[in-house]
Amino acid sequence: MRCPECDATENRVVDTRSSRGGRAVRRRRECTVCGSRFTTYEYIEDRPIQVLKRSGAIEEFARNKLLSSIRVACAKRPVSASDMERVVDDIEDALSRDASVEVPSRKLGALLMEYLRPLDRVAYVRFASVYRNFQDAGEFQEFVDEMAALQEREELQ
């Protein structure tokens, strides 16, 4: 491993533990040249998840793109980085268990909405406004009204 600070290859492992539900090994390393500490992850190489875009193009699943979408939806909300990472981990696990080779981007968006709703309702609405591509304020208001009615039903149970 190269040190991200000084680019040296001499480092030692300070701590090792299981991570991401046992799907990865997390290692804390310390550069023996500059003393900088950094984290590395080791993963089992899975079959790549392919995302079928609306245009018909196929892209490899990009964990960072999904995490970026979650960060935008959760901006200025009380959602921790670890909660966001956990959502991405859970979605990635769900996609890995799916037998299909290609996952439509619509399915990926719907799956993200399933995980965002219990995490933070404002983030859920923010993401839904992009995912569902509301054309006017009326469509948006209908969605928010549905959310409020659903929340009332849940609170009564």
TrEMBL record:
Keywords of the record: ATP-binding, DNA-binding, Nucleotide-binding, Repressor, Transcription, Transcription regulation
Record Pfam families: ATP-cone, Zn_ribbon_NrdR
Gene Ontology molecular function terms on file: ATP binding; DNA binding; zinc ion binding
PROSITE patterns: ATP_CONE
Protein name per its UniProtKB record: ATP-cone domain-containing protein
Any one biological process term the GO annotation gives: negative regulation of DNA-templated transcription
NCBIfam families xrefs: transcriptional regulator NrdR
Originating organism: marine metagenome
Keyword Thylakoid: no
Domain ATP-cone: 49-139
